[in-house]
Design goal:
Number of helices: 4
Oligomer: single chain
Mean pLDDT: 76
Order of helices and strands: HEEEEEHEEEEHEEH
Distance between the termini: 120 Å
Radius of gyration: 30 Å
Number of strands: 11
Largest sheet: 6 strands, mixed
Length: 249
């Protein structure tokens, strides 16, 4: 008579094969995009998130995840793309618990140590075109993904300035965001919180009003202008070449 361990192993293999044939690794994705291309590369994936042990066999717990990228562009004050700037996404602990749903809470009597549900964001780094992509993997709970968080731009800029002596200080340090996706309708939305709009004063006025308050962006000296200044300094006559120095002019 086969022992219990052998029967348990056969049951696990059979059930795993049944799950793989029924669920697969991905699912068709329906999207009605209201994000204006801020969210891209979407895919629905089924993953193992836990395991329940019974007397003779174990069952694998599956969950559906929405995966994709939050993308944006990093530039300087004049619209030139900047490469190598880090962008990080974080979410609140309270929002994480709500997004996971009650059914995803781990029960120590039913779930083993391998059980997990992860709200994952991978930081993005801007490329030569200034484009960054923050990859995410979010669980679909009750046919909905609804996540609130913050995008943090170049989070380590202060430490970089101390260690390296130079860095990119972001004009806007962080911004709140929300991702919403409905599995049944395909409705996809991405919203950001209050944005800071930067302006600078221009013109001298016509005398009827005072000058406008505010500061202009920091001036940057191009290598060409630096060379022109050096040439002008070299072209200026020195005291030794002054033809009128004897006349005390």
């Amino acid at each position: 008579m086969p022992n219990k361990g052998f029967l348990k192993s056969i049951a696990i293999i059979s059930f795993s094969f049944f799950l793989s044939s029924c669920f697969g690794t991905s699912k068709a994705l329906k999207v009605v995009d209201y994000t204006d291309k801020r969210v891209s590369d979407l895919v629905l994936t089924k993953r193992v998130v836990g395991q329940k042990d019974f007397l003779f066999f174990s069952t694998t717990k599956m969950a559906l995840f929405l995966e994709g990228n939050i993308q944006g562009i990093v530039t300087d004050y004049y619209g030139n793309p900047i490469e190598g700037v880090n962008v990080k996404a974080v979410i609140d602990v309270q929002n994480k618990e709500n997004a996971m749903g009650e059914e995803e809470v781990v029960n120590p009597q039913e779930e083993n140590a391998s059980s997990f549900v992860n709200l994952s964001f991978t930081p993005g780094i801007s490329d030569s075109q200034g484009l960054y992509k923050v990859k995410f993997s979010l669980p679909v709970v009750d046919d909905v993904v609804d996540i609130k968080g913050k995008l943090i731009y170049n989070p380590g800029w202060e430490q970089q300035k101390i260690n390296l002596g130079k860095t990119y200080e972001p004009q806007m340090k962080q911004s709140s965001f929300r991702i919403y996706y409905n599995l049944k309708t395909g409705f996809l939305a991405f919203a950001e919180g209050i944005r800071a709009v930067i302006v600078q004063p221009v013109g001298e006025g016509n005398g009827k009003m005072k000058s406008l308050p505010g500061n202009k962006p920091p001036e940057t000296t191009s290598p060409q202008k630096t060379e022109e200044k050096k040439d002008k300094v070299q072209q200026q006559p020195t005291n030794e070449d002054d033809l009128f120095k004897a006349f005390n002019f």
